[in-house]
Design brief:
binds flavin-adenine dinucleotide, Butyryl-CoA Dehydrogenase, subunit A, domain 2, Butyryl-CoA Dehydrogenase, subunit A, domain 3, Butyryl-Coa Dehydrogenase, subunit A, domain 1, 403 residues, 3 domains, alpha+beta, single chain
Length: 403
């Protein structure tokens, strides 16, 4: 189903996200932002609406949404609370990657049967126990950019693994029930192909949350550091079989596009705010300014930028699949770059257009502006690295070298 013409199921899920966002998440967003605290109440609502099982396949008791549907729902959540949408991404992507995405990848029959048993356990925890999963990958080195093996090591022991290492910027730190950790099997000459993807229980001995969390934006994500000190995880903790994450990163590149919908939602929110403000509909500053030609031109330019961004977003999420063509892969980088940079640009234009009263902390625009700045920093597809990949991959075919 094309994202340009959503199915009835997609439209219903987006409407559900819109209702929760407008009625519950938007009114709470300022408080979570001010306190840099995790939006637990929003997650109670998401659980009650079964949206935490959005991409859990129906045969495991979930809503069975695919990649495109997830992106549409996530963009709607981002319109109302960026931190909720971004953390929702970490959780839901975990379910999507071990589900529909893993189904597309090569595994032996034995591996696939074992993976089916493991994911049934993870899905049961989410559907029946309301568990939340995080994705702490970043370590402050080149690994999260896809340039080196992860420094967090997993040592094989009887019945499972023992993990030692440190992750930075772990969204949902202290809030998730399981941390989906990317780590490297501790063996001589390990490479990126030896990456393991293991769900570590947050309560396991040897797991600790540490460090301050007082950032510019996305404050409700509570992305503190995690330390693993010989923490034990059982064999069934695997979210993917050994080596399959590495395969996914090469063959299913759109898996890294799942952060972008949050910022598509923020871009929409900045535009929505500007229209309401200029029409005199924002409470507290109910002065109409829509009659000035300068404002009309400014909002017209914002609309053009928003629709350019959305067009690329919808096209790219509709093209997500295993082994995409070169053009589809390049377009995914272009979409990520455009959404992340334009979201911040639209917020900047919104503040300039609406004026001084609009950037007071009593209104949501300054939070949108701060939250939007974070999008370009998300590895492995930061704005810089998207340009880096585009520059190289447009000019070189795989394996090509200069003399
Ligand atoms: C609000 C927020 C939430 C986050 N949540 C999570 C999370 O849940 N899980 C998670 O794993 N991470 C998370 N991150 C971390 C994020 O994905 C990045 O890892 C982090 O922002 C990188 O910070 P750094 O200072 O270590 O960047 P560096 O690695 O120092 O990179 C700085 C910049 O240099 C460029 N760069 C990096 N590596 C290379 C290279 N090899 N070649 C060329 N250029 C390069 C990139 O453009 C990058 O933006 C979050 C970040 C933020 C801001």
């Amino acid at each position: 189903m094309s994202p340009f013409a959503p199915s009835d199921k997609q439209a219903a899920l987006v409407a559900l996200a819109a209702r929760l966002g407008r009625e519950n998440f938007a009114p709470r967003a300022a408080q979570y932002d001010r306190d840099a605290s995790f939006p637990f109440e929003n997650y109670a609502d998401l659980r009650a609406a079964r949206l935490t099982a959005l991409c859990v396949p129906e045969r495991y008791g979930g809503l069975g949404a695919d990649f495109t549907t997830y992106c549409l729902v996530s963009a709607e959540l981002g319109r109302w609370c960026g931190a909720t949408a971004l953390t929702f991404n970490m959780h839901v992507s975990s379910t999507l990657w071990m589900g529909a995405l893993a189904d597309d990848l090569d595994m032996s029959a034995v591996e696939r049967a074992r993976h089916d048993r493991h994911r049934a356990l993870h899905y049961r925890r989410i559907v029946e126990d309301g568990a939340l999963y995080a994705q702490p990958f970043s370590e402050g080195g080149p690994a999260a950019a896809g340039r080196a093996p992860f420094g967090t090591l997993a040592r094989r022991v009887e019945g499972g693994w023992r993990l030692t290492g440190r992750k930075i910027f772990a969204s949902l730190a202290g809030a998730a029930d399981y941390y989906g950790v990317l780590c490297t099997e501790d063996k001589p000459d390990a490479t990126m192909a030896d990456t393991l993807y293991l769900a570590v229980p947050s309560t396991a001995p040897g797991v600790a949350v540490e460090g301050e969390w007082d950032p510019l934006g996305m404050r409700g994500t509570v992305s503190r550091n995690l330390v693993f000190n010989d923490a034990f995880v059982a064999d069934d903790a695997a979210l993917m079989p050994p080596g399959v994450y590495h395969q996914a990163a090469r063959r299913w590149p759109h898996m890294f596009l799942t952060l972008a919908p949050t910022y598509m939602g923020i871009a929409q929110a900045a535009y929505d705010f500007t229209v309401a403000y200029l029409r005199g509909e924002v409470s507290g500053v109910a002065v109409k300014r829509r009659m000035y030609p300068t404002k009309q031109i400014a909002v017209a330019q914002m609309f053009v930028m928003l629709e350019q961004t959305r067009a690329l977003f919808l096209r790219a999420i509709g093209e997500a699949r295993c082994d995409p063509s070169k053009e589809e892969r390049l377009r995914a980088y272009a979409a990520q770059y455009t959404i992340m940079e334009n979201a911040n640009d639209l917020c900047r234009l919104a503040i300039r257009t609406c004026g001084g009263q609009a950037m007071l902390r009593s209104l949501p625009l300054e939070r949108l502006y701060r939250d939007s700045r974070c999008g370009s920093l998300m590895l492995p597809w930061t704005a810089e690295l998207c340009l880096d990949r585009l520059g190289r991959e447009t000019l070189y075919e795989p394996g090509e070298r200069d003399a």
